[in-house]
Amino acid sequence: MTKMTHLKTSLLGAALIGLSFNSFADNNIETLNFSSQADFKKFGESVINVYGHKQVFPAEQLGLLGFDVGVSVNAVDSNYDLGSQALKDNTIGVFSVHANKGLPGGFDVAFNYNVVNDSDATSWSGELKYALIEGGTATPAMAISGHYAQASGIDALDFSSYGVNLGVSKGFANLTPYIGVGYLNSEIDPIINNPSINLSNEKIGLVTYNAGMNVNLLAMDILFGYNQIGDLGTYTIKAGYRF
Question: How many domains does the chain have?
Fold first, then answer.
């Protein structure tokens, strides 16, 4: 099987999985239906988990000629139905494109573009990572990174976030497990289209955790990842190439 066939198969699988998420749900946030600031803040934590930056790369530095590109399907936890803002456990599908490039001096730069299933909303995030320890045969790699994310296409609010992450990874044959911890600050600014609702912007800071495994299959790489922002998680399957 050729590399292109592998990639097409992975894309088709991701698309089929994605169709199972909220097939009949409306994830557009067109209005805000909260009577209190406290309820809006609680809703904001689910918004952060949907649109905030996720870690989907090991800490290992790529090097000047290295790159990591791929696509992913993500199952994102939410405590709310985004469209109606009804309080209920929910899983939202998000499709993403990822690119990570090695730079001189121990730096990597990454870009992620995300599309929320059954929604007009998209988001992007950028990340700059620096290798504190490059790692080797007997030592793990350690890196610190800063990231920024912004959403668009949401009628009822503006969203942006920034944060830091400290990650560790170690390669074993064709397996590279990784873990990380960080902190994310978000700003959620309501766009009020109902004069009877009085809400102000929320600035929310949350601790983040991430862990995963990158599996090199020669023809391509598969990554299984988990991110947690506050109390909410995201499960990721990413397919692509890492060199």
Answer: 1
